[in-house]
Amino acid sequence: MSKLDQPRLANATVEYNQQQMDQIIRTLEQMVLQLNNTFTQDVQDVNEAESWYFIRV
């Protein structure tokens, strides 16, 4: 499994504002996208390895 970069989420303030919430949402969306992309690549790598192995056997 791939190692993921872990972005820093904004620290909580006494009162949230629109800009802080937008930043948190963007960061979470980037994390989900990165997880989805790396999972797909891992599955492709496993499938390729299995195919190569079974061709050789």
What does this structure look like?
With 57 residues, this protein is mainly α. It has one helix at residues 18-56. The longest helix is centred in the middle third of the chain and has 39 residues, at 18-56. The chain is rod-shaped, with a radius of gyration of 19 Å.
Which features characterize this protein?
57 residues, mainly alpha, 1 helix, 68% helix, 0% strand, rod-shaped
List the helices and strands and how they pair.
Blueprint: H1 18-56
**Proportion in β-strands:** under 5%
Largest sheet, in brief, is: none
Distance between the ends: 26 Å
Number of helices: 1
* Coarse shape: rod-shaped
Q: Could you name the ranges where pLDDT drops below 50 across 5 or more consecutive residues?
A: none
* SSE succession: H
Rg from C-alpha positions? 19 Å
- The average pLDDT score comes to 79
Structural class: mainly alpha
Could you give the count of β-strands?
0
Helix content: 55-70%
In short:
With 57 residues, the protein is mainly alpha-helical. It is built from one helix and no strands. The protein is 68% helix and 0% strand.
